[in-house]
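Troubleshooting: if your tokenizer reports a length mismatch, compare your output against this known-good record of 199 residues.
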Amino acid sequence: MKRRSIGALAIAIVLGGAAVYGMVLIHHGFSARDEPSSIEAWTARRVRRLAIPSGARNLKDPVPRSPAAIREGMQHFADHCATCHANNGRGDTEMGRNLYPKAPDMKAAETQNLSDGELYYIIQNGIRMSGMPAWGKPGDLSDEESWKLVQFIRHLPSLTQKEESEMKRWNPLSPQEQKNQREEEDFLSGSETAAPHKH
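Known-good structure output:
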């Protein structure tokens, strides 16, 4: 009888806590501007772990680690990933800050402690209910490119200021930057209709 009472009390506490949490959410609303609560963050980490098959966690990088492979990963990261993750991997970009959950700090232990296979799987398959898309569709990103990205992610904690600055030239241009670039190229080529962009 005592065990049954303790079990019922535990269930009542969990249900009561869930009800209070639900009422707070309903009263406050759901905004992507908020930081995830500690409960949400804990749950998301556990669900992410469950979402990655155990076989994928143990995958080994087939691409030999080299400065050239890391550099190729760095170029690809700057062109495709930095919009959300920033060149330095900290996620401090307009897009990264406004995602829910926000783009993770890829230099932090939470990311760096993932296995190579887990990082590869996340790149290839994305993470549901987050801003991380799946890049492993045919024609989007080859296995080799994904593994080079894994090598670059491993390199992020030791990224130098020089490398970070160099990455800026591989970042995608905004529509306004593209227009400015075309105007300057037209002006330099002598097109009479073009006017130089004023800085």
